[in-house]
């Protein structure tokens, strides 16, 4: 499959291989497997700590590792007890033993209330529908800058029109977390390509399988899962599953293999229908030989990290105008 049109052309994706597509409702995931021998990078859940939220719009993360480098996931946020819930508008590097205060974080809870218990604290990735707006607001010090976007998203789900993101992430959590069990994270998986219905909506690549393992649930449940859930509410009648007509084990294996081949071909067709992109690339930050870049095109945007032309991390997502 040709994924080069979705990644800046200077990167070589020939070392990546792709697994079998998996589907749950309107959400389809294509697993990616790349090099998994780079131990320099800490994982986002076990290796990053939310140190403090100082007032509104100031969110401090720390990297307690002695030597490991942290690549902060794009649009990472926290639901927490007795403090305002915040999310980041950008990625960043944090060296081992260092802290970083994000003064351009966005508050995702317009006023006090609706907190989760301490035992339920977890991090998320912003829902797909909010990511373009959040990326455009990076560097802007305004804690309420995403409240209007969150309000619009809540209204789409028939929820109270206020800037409380936990109305979706918490109240719909039982539905959203089903994606974690219905879509399987595979051993040594380092990334995934996401489709909603017949549209490609995201490419997520991590520097290691351990990193992607901790990023998987926030991505599949709360980023792409929210967008898939919205599409599913408009589907009036689900097509019934048709069982295989096999009479013995050999026929079952043949029909299963044929079904997988048909699904692969379907995904190829979806990708072929994706408009080719010309990206604008802007360097945001350097850390030793690492480069953090922002990429924007007509239908997709995101950030990636490269080192000497080698792609280490990428989070590229569809813009809302392309989703509709």
Automatic annotation (TrEMBL):
Pfam families: ARPP-1
Domain annotation ARG and Rhodanese-Phosphatase-superfamily-associated: ranges: 16-317
Protein name: ARG and Rhodanese-Phosphatase-superfamily-associated domain-containing protein
Source organism of this protein record: Allocoleopsis franciscana PCC 7113
């Amino acid at each position: 499959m040709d994924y080069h049109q979705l990644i800046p052309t200077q990167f070589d994706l020939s070392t990546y291989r792709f697994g079998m597509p998996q589907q749950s409702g309107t959400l389809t995931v294509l697993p990616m497997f790349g090099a998994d021998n780079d131990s320099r990078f800490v994982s986002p859940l076990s290796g990053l700590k939310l140190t403090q939220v100082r007032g509104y719009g100031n969110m401090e993360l720390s990297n307690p590792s002695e030597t490991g480098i942290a690549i902060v996931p794009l649009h990472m946020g926290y639901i927490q007890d007795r403090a305002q819930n915040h999310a980041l508008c950008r990625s960043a590097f944090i060296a081992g033993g260092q802290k970083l205060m994000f003064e351009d974080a966005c508050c995702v809870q317009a006023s006090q209330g609706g907190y989760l218990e301490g035992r339920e604290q977890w991090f998320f990735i912003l829902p797909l529908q909010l990511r373009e707006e959040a990326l455009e607001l990076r560097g802007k010090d305004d804690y309420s800058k995403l409240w209007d976007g969150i309000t619009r998203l809540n209204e789409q789900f028939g929820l109270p029109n206020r800037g409380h993101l936990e109305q979706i992430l918490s109240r719909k959590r039982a539905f959203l977390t089903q994606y974690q069990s219905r879509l399987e994270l595979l051993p040594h998986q380092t990334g995934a390509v996401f489709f909603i219905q017949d549209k490609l909506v995201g490419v997520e690549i991590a520097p290691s399988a351990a990193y992607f393992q901790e990023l998987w649930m926030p991505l599949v449940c709360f980023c792409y899962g929210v967008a898939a859930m919205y599409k599913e509410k408009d589907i009036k009648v689900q097509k019934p599953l048709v069982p295989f007509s096999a009479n013995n084990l050999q026929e079952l294996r043949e029909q299963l293999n044929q079904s997988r081949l048909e699904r692969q071909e379907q995904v190829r067709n979806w990708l072929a229908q994706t408009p080719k992109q010309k990206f604008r690339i802007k360097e945001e930050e350097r850390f030793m030989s690492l480069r953090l870049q922002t990429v924007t095109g007509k239908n997709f945007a995101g950030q990636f990290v490269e080192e000497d032309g080698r792609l280490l991390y990428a989070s590229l997502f569809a813009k809302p105008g392309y989703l509709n």
